[in-house]
Design a protein that fits this description.
Layout lengths: L6 E9 L5 E11 L4 E12 L2 H8 L6 H25 L8 E12 L4 E5 L2 H8 L3 E3 L3 H5 L9 H7 L5 E5 L2 E8 L2 E9 L1 H12 L8 H4 L5 H8 L14 H17 L4 H23 L3 E5 L6 H10 L3 E3 L3 H20 L7 H4 L9 E3 L5
Parallel strand pairs: 1-4, 4-6, 7-10, 10-11
Antiparallel strand pairs: 1-2, 2-3, 4-5, 6-12, 7-8, 8-9
């Protein structure tokens, strides 16, 4: 085991599929000789401008050359965000490195493809710091899903809970099974909910699930969504925007085009998603589940889910709800830096465990 020192000071960057902004987390990770502890963290979400949200939302349509240019531009933006974050929070202490997830544009692991933009060279040039990024590629090259990666953090930082559920753009879960950590994407979560609200009510999200709570159940819609083949597949498995575009949204659009009330569609999608999540939680038979991600703030969603599960759903502090992924990617960077495994084959289905991520050093002055 190569632990170069006891305390690491790292900035984690995470941009999720919800497109709300960049989550930035300054973390101090302490190795006490037996395990890792999150000793301190400072967090902030930097919202995207409308222009950047549109750029990222349509990046999937770009040819390779233009996507590379966007990756450079986005890397520069991430570097600027880090510099502003450090200045705003007066982080005068030496930062060891940045761990950047980037923003996922393509994720087709069965075709050997996963692409997260945010050129590390641009981040390193702008900040003058070592950057560790591109955490998913190695696992995909080893035949894995390249996702989810947060379960390593669940295993080493948050193992007091029997399972960890993240309600981001996609809902995913991790838990121990026969002495090994396993995880997979369960279903969409905030992505379709936010899309419906943006298109029907010109709002960024459904605060507290107020709009969804006013809708009615559309049995046919729920049955068609529950019948999607993905839910019958065994783990490991993961979801991406491509899957929603090809499988999920066409069903939603069909009912919307029939003149169905948008709040009824929204309500029915909540019922569908909580059906799938509750099915998994009840099948694995855990007693406690840590719930993080923006969906944890959706009061209506959480009420419906609570009624369907036998487990106790634990809602932590707002900081952990919002920034758990940024914190964990900072931690994945620490494991990479220490030459420690940070991607489990039991989670992703790869041929072996691996050390995901690549180091990019700033140019010498």
């Amino acid at each position: 085991m190569l632990i170069r020192k006891r305390l690491y000071k790292v900035i984690g960057l995470m941009s999720g599929t919800s497109l709300d902004g960049v989550d930035v987390s300054f973390c101090e990770f302490l190795f006490d000789g037996e395990g890792w502890k999150l000793a301190r963290n400072v967090n902030q979400t930097i919202p995207y401008t409308l222009k950047w949200r549109e750029k990222l939302d349509t990046a999937i349509l770009l040819p390779d050359a233009k996507l590379k240019l966007l990756s450079n531009e986005y890397g520069l933006l991430l570097g600027q965000i880090v510099n502003e974050f450090v200045a705003n929070h007066r982080l005068d202490e030496k930062i060891d490195f940045i761990a950047s997830h980037g923003h996922t544009v393509h994720h087709k692991p069965h075709e050997g493809i996963t692409v997260q933009i945010g050129n590390a060279v641009e981040i390193a040039k702008e900040t003058g710091l070592l950057v560790i990024n591109n955490f998913r590629e190695k696992d995909v090259n080893l035949g894995g899903q390249g996702a989810p990666l947060v379960p390593v953090g669940d295993d080493l930082l948050f193992n007091e809970y029997e399972a960890c559920l993240n309600l981001g753009g996609i809902a995913n879960i991790s838990y121990d099974f026969n002495g090994k950590r396993v995880a997979f994407d369960i279903s969409p979560a905030n992505l379709p909910l936010n899309k419906i609200v943006r298109e029907s009510h010109q709002k960024e999200f459904d605060k507290n699930g107020e709009l969804a709570s006013k809708g009615k159940v559309v049995v046919d819609l729920i049955e068609r969504l529950n019948g999607l083949n993905y839910y019958n597949q065994s783990r490991p498995k993961s979801l991406g925007v491509e899957w929603l575009n090809e499988n999920f949204y066409p069903i939603i659009d069909f009912y919307a085009n029939q003149g169905l009330n948008a709040t009824d569609v929204l309500h029915s999608v909540v019922i569908h998603e909580t059906d799938q999540i509750a099915k998994v939680i009840n099948e694995i038979g855990v007693a406690s589940v840590l719930v993080t991600g923006g969906g944890a703030f959706n009061t209506f969603f959480m009420e419906i889910l609570s009624q369907k599960v036998k487990a106790k759903l634990v809602i932590p502090s707002n900081d952990l709800i919002c920034f758990k992924e940024a914190i964990v990617f900072a931690f994945l960077g620490v494991l990479n830096y220490c030459d420690q495994i940070n991607t489990y084959k039991s989670v992703t289905g790869a041929s072996r465990d691996s050390i995901g991520g690549y180091k990019t050093y700033p140019p010498q002055s």
